[in-house]
TrEMBL record:
Organism: Anas platyrhynchos platyrhynchos (Northern mallard)
PANTHER family associated with the record: ALPHA/BETA HYDROLASE DOMAIN-CONTAINING PROTEIN, ALPHA_BETA HYDROLASE DOMAIN-CONTAINING PROTEIN 17A
InterPro entries registered for this protein in UniProt: AB_hydrolase_fold, Hydrolase_4
Localization annotation: Cell projection, Dendritic spine; Endosome membrane; Postsynaptic density membrane
Main EC class the enzyme belongs to: hydrolase
Catalytic reaction annotation: S-hexadecanoyl-L-cysteinyl-[protein] + H2O = L-cysteinyl-[protein] + hexadecanoate + H(+)
Protein name: palmitoyl-protein hydrolase
UniProt EC number: 3.1.2.22
Length: 302
C-alpha cells in the first residue's frame, strides 16, 4: 500500500503524498530519518516477500529529515518475544490526543514493499479520523529493520510488537485492535488466532499463498505459505473484513472465503469498484471503521 490520502465525502482523487523514510534514531518523540530505500514491485505476493533494499552499507543512509507526529523506537526488550533473524523490528507510534475516546490502540501490520516512513502520514491521518492511537512496526528486512523477509520472521516480528505494547507501554489486550493490510493480514491472523484482543481488521486479506499464485487451489498443502484460511476459525475476537470487488492483486474471492470461514466475523465492507491499493479513497472505508470502533466495539465495553 502506498502513502495516500484518506477519502471522506466520496471518492477522492489520489494525491501522491511524499514518501517519508524510516527512522533509525529517537529524539524527544521524533526520530531523524534516513533516506528512503528503493522498493521493488510486489511480485509473487503469494509465495514470497518483496522488501525494501538497503544501500551498499547494509543500512539506509541518514539525513536531517524528520517524521513529525511519529515516534520511532528500536526497543531491544522486544527481543524476549522475538525468535527471528537479525535484530527485533523497528516500532512506530502515532499517538492520539488525550480525549477519553482514544482508548484503543491499533497494531497495524502494513502491506508489501512499504515501510514505517512511507506509511507515517497515513497513520497520522487514520488515527485522527478514527480516534485511535496507531502503533506499527517494520518487518525483518524492511526499512531500518535488519534480518531477511520470511514467513517465520513475520510471526516473530508481530510477536515482538505485541510484547512491546503489552509490557513496555502497558496496553491491555482489550484495548488493542489488530489491523492487517494485504501481506500484513498474515501476521495479524496468526497473532489473533493465539491471543484475544478487542478486535481485528483484515484489509484486502489473502487466504493463502498458493491460492493467490494458483487461484484454482482448493486445499491447503503442507508447503503452502501464509495459510490464513486455516487459522481464521481460531479467532475469538470480532473480525471486520474489508475488500475491493475489483482487487487485481488478491482477488475479492479471498475476502469472501475468509468471511465465510470466520465465526466471529461482523458485517463486512465490500467496496464496489475498489482495487487493491485504493480502498482508502472511498468514503465507505472510514464510515465502516468508525461505526465498527465507536459504536459496535464501544457497545461491548458498556
Amino acid at each position: 500500500m502506498c502513502s495516500c490520502s484518506i477519502g471522506e465525502g466520496g471518492r477522492d482523487r489520489a494525491r501522491g503524498a511524499p514518501a517519508l523514510p524510516c527512522t533509525v534514531a529517537v529524539s524527544d518523540g521524533v526520530g531523524s530519518a534516513p533516506a528512503p530505500p528503493p522498493h521493488g514491485a510486489a511480485e509473487g505476493l503469494g509465495v514470497s516477500l518483496q522488501a525494501a533494499e538497503p544501500n551498499a552499507s547494509g543500512r539506509a543512509s541518514r539525513n536531517s529529515r524528520q517524521l513529525p507526529g511519529i515516534r520511532l523506537d528500536s526497543w531491544q526488550g522486544a527481543a524476549r518475544a522475538w525468535g527471528g533473524d537479525g535484530d527485533p523490528p523497528w516500532l512506530g507510534w502515532a499517538r492520539g490526543s488525550c480525549s477519553p475516546s482514544w482508548w484503543y490502540t491499533v497494531l497495524f501490520s502494513h502491506g508489501n514493499a512499504v515501510d514505517l516512513g512511507q506509511m507515517s502520514s497515513f497513520y497520522i491521518g487514520l488515527g485522527t479520523r478514527i480516534n485511535c492511537n496507531i502503533f506499527s512496526y517494520d518487518y525483518s528486512g524492511y526499512g531500518a529493520s535488519t534480518g531477511k523477509p520470511s514467513e517465520r520472521n513475520l510471526y516473530s516480528d508481530i510477536d515482538a510488537a505485541w510484547q512491546a505494547l503489552r509490557t513496555r507501554y502497558g496496553i491491555s489486550p482489550e484495548n488493542i485492535i489488530l489491523y492487517g493490510q494485504s501481506i500484513g493480514t498474515v501476521p495479524t491472523v496468526d497473532l489473533a488466532s493465539r491471543y484475544e484482543c478487542a478486535a481485528i481488521v483484515l484489509h484486502s486479506p489473502l487466504t493463502s499463498g498458493m491460492r493467490v499464485a494458483f487461484p484454482e487451489t482448493k486445499k491447503t498443502y503442507w508447503f503452502d505459505a501464509f495459510p490464513n484460511i486455516e487459522k481464521i476459525s481460531k479467532i475469538t475476537s470480532p473480525v471486520l473484513i474489508i475488500h475491493g470487488t475489483e482487487d487485481e492483486v488478491i482477488d475479492f474471492s479471498h475476502g469472501l472465503a475468509l468471511f465465510e470461514r470466520c465465526p466471529k466475523a461482523v458485517e463486512p465492507l465490500w467496496v464496489d469498484g475498489a482495487g487493491h491499493n485504493d480502498i482508502e479513497l472511498y468514503s465507505q472505508y472510514l464510515e465502516r471503521l468508525r461505526k465498527f470502533i465507536s459504536q459496535e466495539l464501544a457497545s461491548q465495553r458498556n
